[in-house]
Write a structure and sequence with these properties.
alpha+beta; 2 domains; six-stranded antiparallel beta sheet; 16 helices; globular
């Protein structure tokens, strides 16, 4: 028996050493791709035009459509995404039938060897991508293992979305010098399947409960006009009561999902189908502005569902788009987005944080506790004015103002400690 125990602990020790060895060789001290690309006003405008030209809602169902993306646009998209998600950077090189991808991801709160460098090559065979080389730090990953892992991930995502091989929208991928060409078959039902997949982990009964609570409160005159806090107080009081027998994180997620969908003026019937009663038009405000209430709640909902980076990206993209086609770029709206994101993150970060937030909100807070003053920030800037004052997204002047927004949010009592 003693020999078996020794063998057991020896196996554990060897396993830990193997993990440490893999981690040592997989991690690096310096990034492979050192400098992230700067995203200019023109870059985002071009991305917006690409999205507008290839909007699938304008494509007849069942037809095939071809989209081409230049190597420069592909690099900007990948680089910006990695900057948002993992303080990373990327470099993509396109040649005939080959895509060379280099990425560097920074691991937070790790003092040494805190960079994951990935160097990979993807080739197309019969119109489908295949990994032909993959290097993780100093580790060379066998092609067969890399493709097996990619296939398993693909099958898992298809299963989550309830797609079969025939319903796969991607028909052909072509890698050409300096551009990527993608042929896909458009099916509007894919949007419904994607929505159902995102909602599959939610408690549908909780969504209906908070939807009906919103309708009932409005019938009593609460949540029709005035401050967002007038509605949040009774709704979080209900969440606190329900959390006695349920997971407070799931309760907060359902509550904010309902409010974010409603505030964003999306079709709440898709979220809670079958109900004959619906909430009234959104008119609630933060700092006497309805747009602040909308930005705050929609961002809080996205963050509560684990999409903080998406929340920030959507808020930024909307402001960039507004410079030419809307009210103009507004750091005021960005502040409301970031405050809402922090609120949603806190509401779902842990069970203790979820309960603490419910207790604070149910007891009653001031608007300054959830969002700092923002009406003095620059807003309604057209493209030329933004360029003159800040240059481009990510410039030193831009970062300085974004840091000021974060500093203000950090002073809100709800987000301290």
């Amino acid at each position: 028996m003693r020999a078996l125990i020794k063998l057991f602990f020896l196996l554990i020790l060897l396993s830990l050493l193997a993990v440490l060895a893999i981690a040592w060789f997989a991690l690096s001290d310096a990034p492979l791709v050192a400098k992230p690309a700067q995203l200019s006003h023109q870059d985002i405008a071009r991305a917006r035009n690409i999205l507008r030209q290839n909007d699938p809602r304008n494509i007849p169902p069942g037809t095939h459509h071809i989209i081409e993306i230049s190597a420069k646009d592909l690099n900007l998209a990948a680089d910006y995404l990695l900057q948002q998600l993992a303080r990373g950077s990327a470099k993509l090189t396109l040649t005939t039938d080959r895509l060379h991808v280099q990425t560097s991801l920074h691991i937070p709160r790790v003092p040494w060897r805190n960079v994951v460098n990935v160097d990979s090559t993807i080739q197309t065979r019969d119109g489908h991508p295949e990994i032909t080389a993959l290097r993780l730090g100093a580790l060379n990953i066998p092609d067969r293992l890399a493709n097996l892992a990619a296939r398993q991930l693909f099958d898992y995502l298809n299963a989550r979305a309830r797609l079969d091989d025939d319903s796969d929208p991607i028909r052909q991928l072509q890698l050409l010098p300096e551009r990527l060409r993608l042929t896909y078959r458009w099916d509007p039902a894919l949007l419904d399947k994607a929505r159902d997949t995102l909602m599959s982990g939610s408690d549908l009964q909780a969504l209906r409960a908070y939807h009906d609570l919103l309708v009932d409160l409005q019938a009593r005159g609460v949540g029709t006009r005035g401050s967002v806090l007038d509605l949040l107080k009774p709704m979080f009081a209900t969440a606190l009561e329900r959390s006695r027998e349920r997971d407070p994180i799931e309760e907060n997620t359902a509550l904010l999902t309902v409010l974010g969908t409603w505030a964003g003026r999306q079709n709440i019937g898709r979220l809670v189908p079958g109900s004959a009663r619906r909430p009234r038009y959104f008119r609630l405000k933060i700092q006497r502005r309805t747009d602040f209430g909308q930005h705050f709640l929609t961002s809080a909902a996205l963050a509560a569902r684990g999409d903080s980076a998406l929340s920030d990206a959507i808020g930024l993209f909307k402001e960039i788009s507004d410079t030419d086609y809307g009210s103009g770029f507004s750091f005021t709206d960005i502040a409301a987005d970031r405050a809402g994101t922090r609120f949603g993150e806190l509401a779902t970060r842990s069970q203790n944080d979820a309960l603490r937030l419910q207790q604070r909100m149910a007891a009653g807070v001031m608007e300054g506790d959830i969002m700092p003053p923002a009406r003095d920030l620059p807003e309604n800037m057209n493209s030329e004015e933004f360029k003159q004052r800040f240059g481009y997204v990510g410039s030193p002047a831009y970062r300085q103002l974004m840091d000021e927004i974060e500093r203000r949010i950090n002073t809100c009592s709800l987000y301290q400690n």
